[in-house]
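Changelog-linked ticket: D-ribose example.
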Amino acid sequence: MRIAIGSDHAGYRLKQHILRNLGSKYDFIDMGAYSEESVDYPDYARKVAEAILDGSADRGILVCGTGIGMCIAANKFPGIYAALVYSDETAILARRHNNSNVICLGGRTMDYDAALRWVELWLNEGFEGGRHSRRVGKIMEVERELCGRGSR
Ligand code: RB5
C-alpha cells in the first residue's frame, strides 16, 4: 500500500513526526510541504487527492492546523473520501463504516503520539461492507449525478 502524505506549514511538524516514526514501516510518498514556510492547504490536499485518483497512491494522509481545511478541500475531489479523525474509535470507524481513503489530522490541535496510533489503526482496518456499502454507495450516486463520476 502506497500512502501519499501532505501538509501545509501548520501540519508540517506532525507530518514529519509521522514520517520519522512510521516511515520504515509503510511506503510513504511525501508530497510536501517541506518546511514551515506559509503555504495554502488546498494545494496540498489537491496533490494528495490527485495521487490517489491517478493511481500513484492507494491512501492519503493530510495534515493542517486543525485537519478541517484539508478535509473540506480533499472532499471536493470525486473519488476522495476524507475523514477527520480525532480518537481511536473515529480512526477505526472511518475505515469500517466510511471506507475513507484519506485521513485528516490537526498539527495544532492533536497529540502527536495519539495521531501516530490513529494513523496505524486507520491503515490496518478494513471496510465492513453490508449496510455501510449501501450508504457509501449513496454518496457515490451523488458524485455520479453531480460530477459524472465516483471512483469505487
Ligand atoms: C493555517 O493557519 C490554518 O488555517 C490551516 O492550517 C488549517 O488549520 C485550516 O483548516
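Closing comment: Example verified and attached. The domain at 2-127 is CATH 3.40.1400.10 (Ribose 5-phosphate Isomerase B; Chain: A,). Strands lie at 2-7, 27-30, 59-64, 82-84, 102-106.
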